[in-house]
Amino acid sequence: MFERFTKDARAVVEGALGHAQGEGARSVDAEHLLLAVLDREGSRASFALSALGLAERREPVRRDVEEARRRAGLTRADTDALAGLGIDVSEIVARVEEAHGVGALAMSGAGKGAGRPDGAARRGGRRPGFGRTAKKVLEQSLRLAVGRGDRHIGDEHLLLALTVLPGAPAEVLADAGVTHESVTRVLYG
């Protein structure tokens, strides 16, 4: 499938790997792909994000993504549903982080230094593989490209996939006014 990726889409995947490695994650997740899309400049996805007014709001979106990762990728709907059962996710996160370090509940299973006796993030060694959520984004981007009759998968297809799949990335983007419909409108009229 990667042979069908454009230069910009490959850069997003490499950027996501970089984000995952930088935090010592065991796998690349959808949130890493979103962070890498936010890093891009001069591409179709960055054009769409700028047209939707996200250029000057990227940092708050990054913070929202990181906060979602601290909650193990739970959306607000998830945390509200758990609250209805008497489970306070914020309290659980605080207790786990108190015992195991900030980011201990990150979906990929490792925050900075989580699980390491010296508290250091994993360096070198194996590159993280793709987690379930990242694989879903990549698969959905292929479906979206094929559905549009596009021969290649661009970073815009990755952005569209992030907006359409349920989870924290779609929620964070929607809160910033970036939805599947709005991105489609900007990209394709």
Automatic annotation (TrEMBL):
Upper classification of the source organism reads: Bacteria, Bacillati, Actinomycetota, Actinomycetes, Kitasatosporales
This chain belongs to the protein called: Peptidase
UniProt keywords (A-Z) are: Repeat
The UniProt record lists the Clp R domain at 2-189
Q: Which organism is it from?
A: Streptomyces albidocamelliae
Q: Per UniProt, what is one Pfam family of this protein?
A: Clp_N
Cite the residue spans of the region called Disordered: 110-132
What domain of life is recorded for the organism? Bacteria
Q: Where is the signal peptide?
A: none
